[in-house]
Each structure stands twice: as C-alpha cells, then as structure tokens.
Amino acid sequence: MPFDVTLDDIRSAEARIAGRVRQTPAIQSAAAGARLGTTVFLKLECLQNAGSFKVRGSFNKLLSMTEEERARGVVTVSGGNHAIAVSQVARALGSHALVLMPKTVAPFNIALTEAAGGKVELCEDAIVAFARADVHAAGGRTNIHSFDDPLIIAGHGTLGLEFARQAEGLTHLFISIGGGGFSAGVGAAMKALNPALHIIGVETEGATTMTEALAAGKPVAVRPTSIARTLGAPFATARTMAAARAFLDDIVVVSDRDAIAELVWLLQNERILVEPAASCVLAAAMLRRAAFGPGARVGLILCGSNVALEDVAAWRDQFGL
Fold first, then answer.
1. Considering just the CA atoms, what is the radius of gyration of the chain in Å?
2. Structural domain containing residue 233
3. Do 92 and 158 lie in a common domain?
4. Which region holds residue 56: left if phi is over 0, alpha if psi is between -120 and 50, else beta?
5. Is-contact 167 26, C-beta < 8 A?
C-alpha cells in the first residue's frame, strides 16, 4: 500500500493539538558534537507530557473522535509510553482508557499507566493483547492502534515540524523505530520540508521488527527480547513499512549494551534521563560518525524518559557500566 499521511495532515494535526502538548526544546550539544565530530542537536522530547512523544498522536486521535465515541471509551495495546499517553489524554478529554498489556511489562509502566487514569488488563503477550483489543472494540470502545493509525502518525509528525523550525539545515536525523508510526510521521514531515535530509532509523538487537519485516517483504510476528521495551512492537504493518521505504535512508541496529552506555553518558554529561529507546539513537550516530562530512548537522531525537531508576542501576550492573 502507498503511505497515506501527508504534510497537510501533519499540519492539521499541529493546529488541532496546539496548546495541548509541550513544544519541547532542541539544544545544540557541544559534548555530543565533540564525540561525533560535527554539529549535533538533541530534540528533548523526553521532557514531553506523559514522558514521551506519544501524547502528540493520542491527542490528535481523540480530538478527532466525536463526544459520543469518547464517552464509550477507548482500548489500546501497549506495554509502555503509548499506554501512559492514551490514559492521560483520555482522562483529560472526559473519556476512559482500557489498556491491554503483556504480562511481562515492567511494573513501573503499569503504575504510570494507572496513575494516568488507565485501567490495565494483562495478557499473555502482545499478540494476544491485539486480539483482545478487537473483542473490546466490538463492544463499543474505539481501538486506538499504537502505530498503525493515520491520525496517530500525523500527530507524531508534529514533532518533525517543530524540530525543523528549531534546528534548521539538518543533514542527518536519527530516530528510533518500534512499530514504525513515529518514524513514519516525523519522516513524512521532515522529508517533505527537506528532501535531502538523510533519515536513519534505529533499532536495538532483540527489537528488530522493521528490519525483519523489510527483509521478508511483509509484516512478520516477532517476540522482542531487547531491554528497550518501548521498541518492542510485535509486528510492523503495511503502512509503516511503506513509510520506512519512503523516508528512511537506512536502519542501524545497536546492542542493548551500547544503548545503556549512551543512556549513562547522557545522564552524566547532559543531565538528561532518557530510556534506552531514546539513547539508542546516540549509539547509532556513534557507529555512523565516519559518514558525517564537513558541514554536517546531525539531529538526535530523544523520544522518551519513562524509565525506573532501579532499572538503570540494574542495567549498569548487567553491562559493567
């Protein structure tokens, strides 16, 4: 299928959610620039409401629903940031969210989702959860897919419009991939504004959903094992694969260890706490730093910060960091 979210869709989303989400800062990082040998901008979406970019798509989706639809409630599948965001947005707009999570999800994410107003139902795994979501949708709730919904994707794309205004003339952009909705929206926005921009998607070992789908030429079911839990989508879709083909120049896969090493570096050097799904983009840029020519301007999107300090401590011990 051809990709079906346009720059106009993203601009409409930006107008719709204005005042509902933060315009997160983009900073030039001298320390990261010294390591990469070029000019580096960090997009601090880790400071977004609900701790990640996910509120952008969630607001765009729920604000596009009727009052009657919102009153019947929503259901969604997520083990992390999407769950938290949909729960918070639903409560803010007078709706209520049922969140289906794999039973292996981190207790920290369950607590954040419930604190945001969501009702959590645990399932055997994400594949079972998606099937259960269809059952709840048949009962009247709106099923909000975490990455295969044009309104969700358009909402996420508003970050691309924002970053393009904040850091003009970027030559390279590194963005993490889960199911592919985030990179689809941001890619659609930023490639439309700057067709010469090189966009590099990033996955972690054990969460190579898009890499495997593109290699197979079709969506395939995976059971993620990476510690970057918010990258652990069980499959890509025809829509997000189409976006990956259209907007991503390459995909880099990094190790969990490298993602945690850069998480620690960002905390110690930029005083920014992010999750592994965000720090992996710096790890990928480090792997590709030889490709940055004179005058390169590199953007790194730090997409979220929903991580428990206990997990960070355990990961440092695990990898000897």
1. 18
2. 7-53+150-319
3. no
4. alpha
5. yes
